[in-house]
Specification:
The complex is a heterotrimer of chains A (about 280), B (about 300) and C (about 260). Chain A is an all-alpha fold and about 280 residues long. In chain A, about 75% of the residues lie in helices and about 0% in strands. In chain A, α4 runs parallel beside α7 and α4 packs antiparallel against α9. Chain B is an all-alpha fold and about 300 residues long. Chain B contains 14 helices and no strands. In chain C, the strands form 3 sheets. A 6-stranded mixed beta sheet of chain C has the order 6-7-8-3-9-10, sandwiched between helices. In chain C, strands 2-1-4-5 form a 4-stranded antiparallel beta sheet, with helices on one face. In chain C, a hairpin with a 2-residue loop joins β1 and β2. Chain C has 10 helices and 12 strands. Helix content of chain C is about 40%, strand content about 25%. In chain C, α6 runs parallel beside α7. The longest helix of chain C has 18 residues. Classes of the chains: A mainly alpha (about 280), B mainly alpha (about 300), C alpha/beta (about 260). Chains A and B meet through α5, α6, α9, α10 and α11 of A and α1, α6, α7, α10 and α11 of B.
């Protein structure tokens, strides 16, 4: 156990970006305190479109809301929805993949043809269509992206399961009467988990961007919610008069994505030393 | 690929297509909102209940689900994808008009991407673990992490608003209006491909034949440009096909930012105003194009790589 | 002066010493066999002679001279004048040492025009001629094939043909017969011997097969774990050596009719 701990702690990149990621998480948690109690969704039209000054360090938007507070609260929505999304994809994809690989036959055929269908299709298009048709909301955006992303995880889990499915020790376990659940839980799942955790970790950044993109298009978080993508969408009409409305939320997404991408890459280097 | 393989691929495509058409139809069927009502509200009329009922009858919306689906599929097969509520024009005509601008944008960004990613990837691989390699890798890292909608907005802010070099709104017709959208799309793609090229070239540089060529006294330049590079670009063909395919359907964000009159822009408008026939037509079109491109890519790959073609 | 001389050569990968204190000398027209199990460092030694140590290996001590030239301090330019012209190398599978996506003829022509001002057509004809001289009928068809379309024996003959194109003074052969069946193996070995007789080529052959090593080598070097454990003229190694490892290797060679078939 100590060796594992050392492997994580001796990777400088992992430690650095782990700390940075924790800071972002802390910002999300303590957003109310950090924003000095300013309500991100309330503003008065008298102070609309004010450039950054001592009172509003990131300026205000068209409704007179404080951009700084909105960026801080945006971390809450972005992080929580991304983590829900990644967890969902991970659970659904892995479960379907493991089941598909373990049982084979028609179960496998059905699940994999469904996956083929999703993959034989540009992801964002379907996500936009699904999110749009179900009605715009963050929940539906999450469902939409999950629907088009799970096949990647399912395929991976399936191939990993197939590698051990017909090994002697698995056959032996079946012969000695291990139940199906036990087989899945004890023998199949552990074989897939490392690879899929790595994949999930490296996917956090791009999932965050896709959610923000849907919100930007108006199919995710709805006004007046303080979500970075949605804020960028609102900023478009004020590009000339209030560029701060677009610079800060954009920076927030960019920095967060960089940090989580870096964290994911380093995690992969630690867990999967084969890569470079 | 021989005839049988192509036929079986076409059959697979057909199955996927049936699945996708069913899914889209189901989705529009289940979605809140009433197409019959939309037909009126799109023209700014508040319809009476009788009017709605009458329209529902005309549009066949009162029939059972499967009958509706069957009618729609049969119409599509005859090239009739219905009429847009929003624009009062046949769906196929609308899509056709938007296809070329999106295709232009896709090709432009792909060409830009190739112009940058291949040299960068090669340089990075040849100078493996040297400063320039780290530099290129850092750039690609930022490239994949920057959201394209923000990048697009920032480019507009800098080049159009502040410097006034380019028009803010793209007409889609001239080259000027193509530059920024194409650059925006190309950045993330370039970053992704630079990494792929780098990995592929590195792998290829470690092949036995490189040692063989060195042992024969072939110059490093010839090894790189005449052997390693062509070989490492082979697997990229497949990726390129996938990217072009997904760009065709996935340029919505960029098209909206630049008000570019392409397919993606039309699709988002259609979804927002619940223009069902248009959405369904769009999804079908994009998936057919996407699958055809992938098929063409696989076939061409088969002819380009002698190992695929000739190995027993 | 010897044609090739290795003096106290150490080869290391990072901090690991892979080959320790290896010495070897070779006269003109002489054949030297280096024999040992896999991992004994024998391949590393001839790769080092060619300046082609894979993956960050380097000669960390000692000297390698060829015809009076120090091989350890050559520029890329000087190497190109040597490799493929004066010194050739033949590998275990010459097929994989050629670009798989190009015709053998294309690789051959690329090789010829690197060293000689010839038109493509003339270079192609020269390739065909060399291949046919290695007793491969229909050289043109071979040239128009991809490496993976040929049998192991055919590929190896193409490799030898390429290696002998410019009648090098020194031929380095790395397990050139190990991937072949016994019949083909015998033919290829005989062809090597003819090269020496015809052109006076000096050969260093690396093999794990003591039978091949003894048949070909005027002298034999036995390596184990990166060190030379025994060396000498063929007769000495086969009949007089008291080295236990050499004896062990000898015992592993199959006998035929009471006579050791080496």
């Amino acid at each position: 156990m100590d060796a594992t701990k050392n492997r994580f702690l001796s990777n400088r990149g992992f430690v650095l970006f782990g700390i940075l990621a924790s800071i972002i998480v802390l910002i999300a948690i303590f957003a109310p305190m950090l924003s000095g109690g300013i309500d991100p969704e309330a503003g008065s039209l008298e102070c609309a479109i004010k450039p950054p000054d001592a009172e509003h360090i990131f300026g205000t938007d068209k409704m007179g809301r404080d951009v700084y507070a909105r960026v801080l609260y945006g971390a809450r929505i972005s992080l929580s929805s991304t983590f829900i999304l990644v967890t969902l994809i991970f659970v659904v994809g892995t479960a379907l993949g493991v089941v598909s690989g373990y049982f084979g036959g028609w179960v496998d055929a059905t699940i994999m043809r469904l996956a083929d269908m999703m993959i034989a299709f540009p992801g964002l298009v379907l996500a936009i269509a699904v999110a749009g048709m179900m009605g715009p909301s963050m929940r539906n955006a999450i469902i939409a992206i999950m629907l088009v992303t799970w096949p990647k995880y399912a395929r991976m889990a399936r191939s990993l399961v197939l590698k051990v499915r017909h090994t002697d020790y698995v056959d032996a376990a079946i012969v000695t009467g291990s139940g199906t659940w036990r087989m899945l839980w004890k023998y199949m799942l552990p074989n897939t988990i490392t690879t899929l955790v790595i994949t999930a970790a490296t996917d956090i950044g791009s999932m965050m961007m896709e959610l923000a993109a849907l919100s930007f298009l108006g199919f995710g978080a709805q006004p007046p919610a303080a979500e970075w993508g949605a804020m960028l969408n609102e900023s478009r009409d004020f590009m000339q008069s209030a560029p701060w409305m677009m610079i800060y939320p954009g920076m927030a997404i960019f920095i967060t994505v960089v940090v989580f991408n870096m964290l994911g890459d380093n995690l992969r280097d630690i867990l999967d030393p084969r890569e470079e | 690929m021989n005839k049988n393989q192509i036929l079986s691929r076409l059959l697979q495509m057909l199955i996927v297509l049936i699945g996708i058409s069913f899914l889209t139809f189901l989705l529009t069927y289940l979605s809140p909102g009433d197409p019959a009502r939309n037909l009126f509200t799109a023209s700014g009329i508040m319809p009476t209940t009788e009017q709605i009922e009458e329209t529902r009858e005309i549009l066949g919306l009162n029939k059972p689900f499967f009958i509706q689906y069957k009618d729609w599929v049969l119409n599509c097969l005859q090239g009739n994808f219905g009429e847009s509520f929003m624009l009062h024009k046949p769906v196929s005509e609308l899509l056709m008009a938007r296809l070329w601008p999106t295709l232009k944008l896709t090709l432009a960004s792909t060409i830009l991407m190739l112009l940058f990613s291949v040299p960068l990837g090669v340089i990075s691989a040849v100078h493996h673990n040297k400063p320039i390699d780290y530099f290129v890798r850092a750039i690609t890292f930022f490239g994949v992490s920057i959201p394209n909608f923000w990048l697009g907005l920032m480019l507009i802010l800098v080049f159009c608003v502040k410097m006034g070099l380019l028009p803010v709104v793209s007409s889609g017709a001239d080259l000027e209006s193509l530059i920024l959208p194409a650059v925006t799309l190309a950045v993330a793609m370039t970053a992704k491909y630079t990494r792929q090229v780098r990995t592929a070239v590195l792998e290829e540089l470690h092949s036995d034949y490189v040692i063989g060529a060195r042992a024969r006294g072939i110059s490093e330049k010839k090894i790189l440009w005449c052997n390693v590079l062509p070989n490492s670009l082979l697997p990229l063909i497949t990726m390129l096909g996938l990217s072009i395919g997904s760009l065709l359907g996935g340029t919505s964000v960029v098209e909206i930012i630049f008000s570019y009159p392409g397919l993606g822009n039309l699709a988002v408008a259609a979804i927002t105003s619940a223009d069902y026939f248009l959405v369904q037509g769009y999804v079908l079109w994009v998936s057919v194009i996407y699958m055809l491109i992938n098929l063409i890519v696989d076939i061409s790959y088969y002819y380009v790589d002698p190992r695929m073609r000739l190995r027993r | 002066m010897s044609l090739l001389e290795l003096k106290n050569v150490d080869i290391s990968y990072g901090k690991n010493l892979t080959v320790k204190n290896c010495s070897l000398s070779l006269e003109k027209g002489e054949i030297c066999s280096i024999v040992g199990e896999s991992g004994s460092g024998k391949t590393t030694v001839i790769r080092a002679i060619m300046g082609l140590l894979p993956g960050g290996g380097r000669v960390s001590a000692g000297s390698i001279t060829y015809d009076g030239t120090d091989l350890l301090n050559l520029t890329d330019e000087e190497w190109r004048g040597l490799r493929g012209l004066d010194v050739s190398m033949i590998f275990q599978d010459s097929g994989t040492m050629m670009n798989q996506t190009r015709l053998i003829g294309d690789s051959y022509v690329e090789y010829i025009i690197t060293h000689e001002k010839l038109s493509r057509k003339a270079a192609w004809a020269k390739g065909v001629e060399m291949i046919e001289r290695m007793r491969l009928p229909d050289g043109d068809r071979i040239m128009r094939s991809y490496p993976f379309q040929l049998s192991g024996g055919q590929r190896q003959r193409v490799g030898i043909a390429m290696g002998m194109t410019y009648q090098p003074r020194l031929l380095l052969a790395d397990e050139p017969t190990s991937a072949l069946d016994v019949t083909t193996q015998a033919q290829i070995v005989r062809q090597f011997m003819e090269l020496r007789d015809e052109y006076g080529t000096s050969i260093v052959i690396v093999t794990h097969n003591l039978g091949v090593a003894a048949y070909m080598g005027d002298k034999i070097v036995v390596m184990k774990h990166g060190e030379v454990v025994d060396r000498g003229e063929r007769d000495y190694i086969l009949h007089q050596s008291t080295n236990p490892y050499t004896k062990l290797l000898l015992d592993a060679v199959p006998t035929l009719g009471g006579r050791r078939y080496v």
